[in-house]
Amino acid sequence: MAHDFNNLLSVITGYTELLLLKLDGKNPARRELEEIHRAGERAATLTGQLLAFSRSQVLQPKLLQLPEVVENIGRCSGA
After folding, report:
1. Contact 51, 2 (CB under 8 A)
2. Contact by Cβ (8 Å): 60, 70
3. CA-based Rg of the chain, rounded to a whole angstrom?
4. pLDDT tens digits, one per residue of 12-57
5. CB distance 23 to 30 below 8 Å
6. How many CA atoms lie within 13 Å of 73's alpha carbon, on the beta-carbon side?
7. How many CA atoms, within 13 angstroms, populate the side-chain half-sphere of residue 59?
8. Which of 52, 54, 73, 74 could in theory staple to 79 by disulfide, Cβ–Cβ 3.0 to 4.6 A?
9. Is-contact 15 49, C-beta < 8 A?
10. How far apart, in whole angstroms, are the C-alpha atoms of residue 8 and residue 68?
11. Is this model's pTM higher than 0.85 or not?
């Protein structure tokens, strides 16, 4: 979901960049577009931080007895 959100943010920041290239410095809409662009960049940074946080889950490895695991898989599949 975060990746999809990041894709939407890329569209928002990309289109604002294109519009900013077309506007001269005197256009009254320029300031608002710059603010939209900055907000999109901040949101993308936040999304990246959320993704990094979600990946930092502590793993709890445990020792498995492989023959037992394979036997249980066979029981679950009806084999």
Report:
1. yes
2. no
3. 24
4. 999 999 999 999 889 999 999 999 999 999 999 998 888 887 777 5
5. yes
6. 6
7. 4
8. 74
9. no
10. 46
11. no
